[in-house]
Design a protein that fits this description.
By secondary structure, the protein is an alpha/beta fold. The longest helix is centred in the middle third of the chain and has 17 residues. It is globular. The N and C termini lie far apart (about 40 Å). Bound molecules: S-adenosylmethionine.
Amino acid sequence: MENVSFYNPGDNEIITLINEDLKAFKIKQQSVGFFESQFVLYFNQGQLRLQFNKVDGSSFSQCVDFLDEKSIWKQGSLIQKNQIFTKAVGLKKGCLSVLDTTAGWGQDSMMLKTLGFNVTAVEENPLVYLLLRDGLRRFDEATPELKSPINLIHANSIAFIEGLSSESTFDVVYVDPMFPGKKKKALSGKPMQILKELVPTHEEKLGEILNAAFNITKKRLVLKRPLRDKIVESVWHKKADISFLGKAIRYDVFLK
Ligand SMILES: C[S@@+](CC[C@H](N)C(=O)[O-])C[C@H]1O[C@@H](n2cnc3c(N)ncnc32)[C@H](O)[C@@H]1O
């Protein structure tokens, strides 16, 4: 990855945690400077962070922290407020399995886990995956009493689903793709700015991921999209069985 480097000021035990990934993702290591590349990964106080150096000379950094006071995990009330999410994923008693095909910064995966789902989350972007994996690692270390960690996989979801055996299915499959010009209220500005820079929006892939997701689900496919989006109808011709509308976003539910 040409526009990415890992800032390594010296040998440190924690860095060995990601050495193999740096090699696999061809991320070069450097010992000086935070401004050599557009994106710089580094550890600060045990957290893996990603610095985004923008073309206008400004910069900011991002990590995934589920232990932060503001995180979804700490704000049980957020789930109460987010009733449409809960209704859309169709929580029933008992532990259901869910496949989050677009893990991103893991906010929705964590919400699903908090609701009691057994979560498998797939993310294809290496930097987003590394940050999320680090956030989950710290979360799991800090909360050993909580069972069923989120099973995070680095892959393209379509390929991942195609590689599953014919018996494997998930009760619920969740899709939250990137939309062009998506105004994200669900994520604060900076995380979304990084995602927009890192992740291309492939409208033509949207139909493919929805097909794959619908094939693998046992009960329902849940699609999160901007309230007034028109793209989905142009690439996928199924009509939602139920829609839950928020102020800026909607969840469309396709039942099996
Ligand atoms: C809008 S973000 C998801 C945000 C996430 N729901 C959250 O709560 O943080 C979309 C994410 O899906 C990932 N993505 C898009 N298409 C994918 C695919 N086919 N397989 C795996 N990940 C994908 C992108 O890299 C991006 O990180």
